[in-house]
Amino acid sequence: MNKPLPIAIGHSACPHDCPSTCALDVEILENGQIGRLRGAAQNDYTAGVICAKVARYAERIHHAKRLLKPLQRVGEKGGSEWREISWDDALDLIAERFVAAEQKDGSEAVWPYQYAGTMGLVQRDGIHRLRHAKRYSGQFDSICTNMAWSGWFAGAGAMRGSDPREIAKSDCVVIWGTNAVATQVNVMTHAAKARKDRGAKIVVIDIYDNATMKQADLKLKLRPGTDAALACALMHVGFRDGTADRDYLSRYTDDPQGLEAHLQTRTPEWAAAITGLSVEEIEAFAALIGKTPRTFFRLGYGFTRQRNGVVAMHAAMSVPAVYGHWRHEGGGAFHSNSDIFGLDKSEIMGAAYRDPSIRHLDQSRIGAVLTGDREALSGGPPVTAMLIQNTNPANVCPEQRLVRRGLARDDLFVAVHEQFMTDTAKLADLVIPATMFLEHDDIYRGGGQNHIVLGPKLVEPPQTVRTNHFVVEELAKRLGVADRPGFGKSERELIDGLLELSGEPGGYEALKAGRWIDKQPDFATAHFLKGFDWPDGKFRFKPNWQGSMAPNRPPESLGLQGPHGALPEFPDHVELIETTDELHPYRLATSPARQFLNSTFAETGGSRQREGEPALMIHPDDAAREGFRDGAVVTIGNERGEVRVKLQVSYTVKPGVVIHEGLWANDDFLDSEGINTLTGADPVAPFGGAAFHDNRVWLRG
């Protein structure tokens, strides 16, 4: 049988929770389906390269197990019996249950819960318009970016940095705390170009020998949660050896003398004892960046997902300030460009209806919220009705046992709008099928790069699935708020309004013609050569941890988070992590898998085949001491629970460290409990967040 032929190439943007937001070329087949996806060669950040999982997107959008009809639960929660109902009946049911919850306990008893299953600004953020119009409980988005963003902002005062395309112009590329091969392939595209064209050295700093470290010229495999100690030693050497840029320090930083005095005892020997690196490794790295003005620090999220992660990010980004790398093209540092886009989402989000007196609930603490913890509920009523879009909390959130227990409450109504029967959908009362990104209009902006990118509808969805936008609009009609400004508009009209409010001429049609808008600031602005974004223009080695602004500072009702009083005056290593003890001799990190993106793609055959099965990596010395063999089934646990999983004995990890890659579905584990059974939801200082890679555990045969 002949395969359908491509009849057109459509243009879009990857919607998934990855910093790249790749510009895409999509094969449209003669049968109305899609074929291969490729990176747009004309986009100079994507540069024609995308990850393999998105290239195979036809496997996902045309999956045989995709949800296609609304389903209402029959029987007990967690069971497998469902009945098909109409879309009108499903939406009527959600509205009825929301009204009942509000009448019983007030509007805050309803909690719309969402996150980043799509990064499209219309389909992701429109649920807030309904939230604010109805005065439902707010959501404090703490699960992903908070530690990294808070740490960066504490130094720079803004969320931007050197143009990420400058990696290709660097002589030394430092990839710190991000497995870019698996999670942001475009970083490697530009790093490989720098190596080929300029002979650049690639340095990778991480906690295990992952796919990115395998491509490095200098590999620094340190103990989890010790990144700030390495950063301090690098700065110590810069002052000691005279490679610190004292002119830059005096012009652009707040207290270089105080920092130098503080770092007197932060020697390579001191850092070696903490990090597990050798003194020679630290000295070699310091010498390399000391003689290489064009050193580019690409700082990721991974190393900040510790309880001292905010301090780690601030310490790491302090290094290029000490050495003056910011002066040079191909130098400086980059984490996120979130501040450069200037997109006004107020109409999409219904910002005019926001009431600051309405409580916020911490998304990372959904387990505590749904099991009635009074502090987590901010003293308000229990949550008794939810609409969940764009996220899978029964799998991806910490303290999984609490999350699942809360979702299984008989007095809690849960509607899940999804593409597949996820772990969360399995616990719902109602499941309604959602479109995928090529089946609706949306607009994207890439925090890890510099473009606003349009994602127009390219193919027709199955007749029985609906967009996030449709669900929000239909519920607004049933709940009596559809007459308010911002409602009643199509996706394209909202995109036009967004661009107009943001000062981008031409609207949807102009962006469709141009495909993307490059928002990268000029060199001096990006490199902070006009000053950092604090009133005095100085980079802050001495952050005001408690009084500072932050990109996502908790609302007043939640206040400062975690042990904020323990944060250091200057960059330093702080023992806020879950250190090992006699009962818990190992540190566990739950790192990303190459073929999955959070829990997305864990349902597709190609990704599953390439990943194999859930496995726990352990060093051969630890396995021998415990009497474990490769492939053995072990139980890993802590006070939060335990999980049974197969062992993979490998020198990839350090002694005392175990790594589990990927968010497999809970049912893929031997006891149907996923790896986030073991992760904690206690907030990280000072502004919250979940420390997914900071867990002490025990192992038993």
Description:
The protein has 701 residues and is α/β, with parallel strands linked by helices. Strands 5-4-16-15-14-6 form a 6-stranded mixed β-sheet, covered by helices on one side. The model has no long low-confidence stretch (mean pLDDT 97). It starts with 5 loop residues before the first strand and ends with a strand. It contains 24 helices and 25 strands.
Major sheet characteristics: 6 strands, mixed
Q: Which blocks of ≥5 consecutive residues have pLDDT under 50?
A: none
Look at the helices and sheets and give the structural class: alpha/beta
N-C termini distance: 51 Å
- Strand residue content: 15-25%
Q: Choose one word for the global shape.
A: globular
DSSP summary: helix tally: 24
- Mean pLDDT across all amino acids: 97
A few lines on this structure:
The protein has 701 residues and is an alpha/beta fold. The protein has 24 helices and 25 strands.
